[in-house]
Amino acid sequence: xxxxxxxxxxxxxxxxxxxxxxxxxxxxxxxxxxxxxxxxxxxxxxxxxxxxxxxxxxxxxxxxxxxxxxxxxxxxxxxxxxxxxxxxxxxxxxxxxxxxxxxxxxxxxxxxxxxxxxxxxxxxxxxxxxxxxxxxxxxxxxxxxxxxxxxxxxxxxxxxxxxxxxxxxxxxxxxxxxxxxxxxxxxxxxxxxxxxxxxxxxxx
Amino acid sequence: xxxxxxxxxxxxxxxxxxxxxxxxxxxxxxxxxxxxxxxxxxxxxxxxxxxxxxxxxxxxxxxxxxxxxxxxxxxxxxxxxxxxxxxxxxxxxxxxxxxxxxxxxxxxxxxxxxxxxxxxxxxxxxxxxxxxxxxxxxxxxxxxxxxxxxxxxxxxxxxxxxxxxxxxxxxxxxxxxxxxxxxxxxxxxxxxxxxxxxxxxxxxxxxxxxxxxxxxxxx
Lengths: 204, 219
Description:
Chain A is 70% helix and 0% strand. Chain A is mainly alpha-helical. Chain A folds into two domains: 1-30; 31-199, Ferritin. Chain B has two domains: 3-65, no CATH class; 72-199, Glutaredoxin, CATH 3.40.30. Chain B contains five helices and six strands; from the N terminus they run ααββαβαβββα. At the A-B interface, helix 1, helix 2 and helix 3 of A face helix 2, helix 4 and helix 5 of B.
């Protein structure tokens, strides 16, 4: 009887402890100024440009390897935008930060806060300017492929830096998992794109 | 019997007596407890503490699951409109507000990736951008230069926004999302940031995940 009561008491205390820990964990969700939220917003915009560039090159060349690479980037990065958007939804956070881009990545000076920044749309590491995008839209065949590969190598390099930056700033498993896949996936694509440039007689 | 043996025997006897006395007093106490039916305060306190701790933990966990959405706090002055058509048409559409807050629109959206336009946009294209989760910032032509610069900086730094003049609108500045609109007098109004946080790709977006580039790039 006495032993049963002690066991019951221990069980209740354990349950209370578990609930408290769970609650504390929940209350530890990222805030709007957290690196996780900043990464989710900024990487979404960064990815969106990669999707755009990949669509452009698919319209500007018939070369199958380049078209397939572009297809790969479009589908993967668009899906990742959806994952990051879902995080912000789960955390109940705004999808934008009117305070400016890239504030979570200390040390990087984003163009957003500088009035009339003149960044021409290239507001994050590795992003292409609007001028470069227009040039890609006008190029065709081999010229378009080479332009695309060069722009996308720079784009991926910036993306890898951003993913590494969030890895250094977060313990959240879902963020770490996706950022890791970005680092690994984009690095291997950089190597592939360098080979593709060489095959087309161009340097990076 | 030596002296030391006698002492030992005496000590043993004393020890035995003490043991007996202890046993009998414990027996007395046990009897008293049965008769007096003492209130088990120890048990009551113990289980009360456990009960309170678990109740607090459960309540805390419950409250944590339903925290308020930061983005959804009410912004004073926002006008709402529901039941807007999402039909696609290449023809002209007559909208009942200026700027329009949604409704039938052109299949081609206006690029809204933090884009500053210096000429008025075609409503039918801009409405499609609202459907994609953009906030359209508009101003009455003639807005003071420093006011306009503030708006340009804000839009230039925020994805899924676009800026254009809108002749004939009721206030110097208007912010429009799908089904939501806020008229403002001043570009330094704090409600601008609040509106952007709430409605850029906000829960009112009819087509979440849709793009803000790749379509119409000029007014």
